[in-house]
Amino acid sequence: MADEMRRFKGSDEKNPFDAMSERFDRAAKLLGLDEDLYAVMRVPSREIKVYIPVRMDTGHIQVFEGYRVQHNFARGPAKGGIRYAPDVTIEEVKALSAWMTWKCAVVNVPFGGGKGGIVCDPSQMSLGELERLTRRYTAELIDFIGPDKDVPAPDMNTNEQTMAWIMDTYSMHARHTVTAVVTGKPVALGGSLGRKEATGRGVLFCVNEAIKRLDKTPEQTSVVIQGSGNVGGMAAQLMHDTGYKIIAISDIFGGIHNSNGLDIPKVRQYLQENRTLEGYPEAERVDNKTLLEIECDVLAPCATENQITSENAGRLQCKILAEGANGPTTPKADQILHDKGIFVVPDILANAGGVTVSYFEWVQDRTGYFWSEAEVNSRLEEKMIASFNELVGYGDRHGVDSRTAAYMMAIDRVAYHTRMRGIYA
Ligand code: NAD
User: DSSP string of 222-257?
Assistant: First the structure.
């Protein structure tokens, strides 16, 4: 709790659960959601906190704090990633779990929302320590996760190796292999082709639809991307391949800018070899704050939360904001963006490609029949385009902006399931 207070002290605008709740409240009010449903849906179903003892390489035991929040089960098992970071808080995990509920509803996949996190610094831990941490965390959660209960996936600082350890630990307890307990696994262990690229590909599909509003082709569209990890790096690559002009990209240490367009394969190669963008030739150095304010057609924040706030929203010079990250924009910034006429592809749609292909992975594991990459990508494209158009149509019919439309559509769907199931009667 002390850490939470420290992190959000003096800046309520940046409390992610408050940000989620504010948008939820606005959408619920516009929908006229009845007060019983409101009471059920506004809070998570379950918050689990575990203390994880791990024998470190020094021989000593260190106890780590971990969380799993299961926000909602009305539409199916909880679904959501696990992040490892020193500044993970329960507030953040709660917000992320709720976003998963709304995201799964927006793209209409049969999952609820969940999220997990462990307070740790993976950059300071050996592979062995990370494996022991992951296995013990999984064992602590054994009664709460499973293909029909809650299906974790990777998030920041976790990856397919982490998922393989979780799958193996769960299977040891079940005494048979249960691939469908997690998604984002290595392909050979029951993962899906196309999953690694799916979130970035989903961002691409949304941007392809959004630029039609500007009457532009990809070749005529300039793009700025914050973050060059799984989402940002992949979105940059796929957009570059499609013909978009990526004029700036960053990582946590800062970014690079070239208004004539960056050679993205070369940038990614440089990043892989040097572990930083600093020193990249053929571009100017730019800090992460300035990067967001570069004039462009599309700005895609694909790094972390709270990047666009009431402080800097007024200085943005993009026409479309495609939110690859979860929660990159605060509610106070929403109104400013709206007044500036910036079209927002909200996070719960823009980055839903990942959970959509996670759903495909879960389906493939359960049927034991695996699809080609082309099939995965074409089903993803169909779902993203349909969801984008549904959302825009919903917004137009109700006279609300795209973020409000996304929340209204999602809440309406979860409310329908909750009401029909009568689970709180
Ligand atoms: P990642 O760890 O692979 O990459 C994160 C990138 O952002 C890195 O380039 C990192 O250097 C940069 N970064 C981190 N903190 C930053 C900061 N404070 N300022 C500027 N840059 C910073 O993570 P990812 O998987 O690409 O996830 C990025 C975001 O997308 C997160 O919000 C995550 O929750 C969300 N997301 C990820 C997926 C997925 O499938 N990976 C799916 C949906 C949403």
Answer: EEEEE--SHHHHHHHHHHHHHT-EEEEEEETTEEEE
Axis-axis angle for helices 373-398, 195-210 (nearest 10): 40
191 lines ligand 1 (CB under 6 A): no
DSSP 8-state symbol, 55 = E
User: What are 251-309's pLDDT values in tens digits?
Assistant: 999 999 999 999 999 999 999 999 999 999 999 999 999 999 999 999 999 999 999 99
Which residue's alpha carbon is at the smallest distance from atom 30 of ligand 1? Answer: 325
| AA identity, residue 417 | H
CA distance 405 to 399: 9
Considering only CA atoms, give the Rg of the chain: 21
90-106 vs 353-367: helix crossing angle, rounded to 10: 70
The whole-angstrom separation of Cα 162 and Cα 154 is 7
For the Cβ of 202 lying below 6 angstroms from any atom of ligand 1, the answer is no
φ, ψ for residue 138, nearest 5 deg: -65, -45
CB 303 near ligand 1, within 6 Å: yes
Verify whether residue 79 is a known catalytic residue. Answer: no
Among the listed residues 13, 126, 134, 39, the one whose alpha carbon sits nearest the alpha carbon of residue 83: 134
- CA separation (Å) from 198 to 43, 44, 118? 29, 27, 25
CB atoms within 10 A of CB 318: 22
Cα 225 to averaged position of ligand 1 atoms, centre (Å)? 11
Rounded CA separation 166/163 (Å): 5
- 326-347 pLDDT, tens per residue? 999 999 999 999 999 999 999 9
Coil, helix or strand at residue 69:
strand
CB-CB contact of 190 with 167 (8 Å): yes
CA 300 to centroid of ligand 1, rounded, Å = 12
Spatial neighbors of 71 by CB under 8 A, at least 6 apart, are 44, 45, 78, 94, 97, 98, 100, 101, 112, 113, 114, 115
